[in-house]
Hints:
This protein is mostly helical. The chain is built from nine helices and no strands. Helix 3 runs antiparallel to helix 4 (87-126) and helix 4 (87-126) packs parallel to helix 8.
Amino acid sequence: MSAQRSFAWIGAKSTEGFAAFGRFSSFTAEAGRAVPDLKTWGKLLFPLMKRIGVDSIPIALFLAAFTGIVLALQASYTFTGAIPMYFVGTLVGKTMILELGPVLTGLALSGRVGANIAAELGTMRVSEQIDALETLSYNPHSYLVVPRVVAGLLMFPVIVVFANAIGIVSGWITAINLLEMTSQEFIRGLRLFFEPFDITYSLIKTGSFGFAITLIGCYQGFTTTGGAQGVGTATTRAVVLSSMMILVLDAFWAVTLLQ
Length: 259
């Protein structure tokens, strides 16, 4: 009987998972069909780019600055004289651009941006404002979903460019003040294995993070039920699922683009 219950539980959870994936796919398709409605979402794009992108820059720069400091200090501790110190610049530059800059920024913004979108749209759902938009012949996907997703897709790479730069600069300042390195040594290491594709890879990865975070936040907001408690649940799910998707996409792009 316990084995039967176990299989029944697995079957029920699998069915729920496929059903949830189907609902999300349908939501994404509806958002895709709303993209041509530029007249509706175009006028909303720039204010949302400011909210999602410009207003998120301070937290991204704060994280990047201390990440650069820690990378420089840990690199000097790890090398222990066996590797030339100019490799500190190599480690700081490659790690910030390829991995920590995009991923840490994405994880931080999944909390700031994804949670904000889910809470905002969830409140609109439970207070029937989204239903009112449909009554007024507005496509809620054109009005609420598309501008947020496009803003995330456009602004996340911009944020990460600043974050990468600040992380490298903070690593350089740490190296020349605490590690007894010269600027020339740090820059030598920074340029040693640098490839222009590193920047492209970072931007592609970050754009996918922005797309996933905003889309998941919109979906969780649109499917909110149950009043204030439902809004809290949707917000939590948006952050958790966005963080998981960032890690999945991180692995996907590494396998796809770095092999």
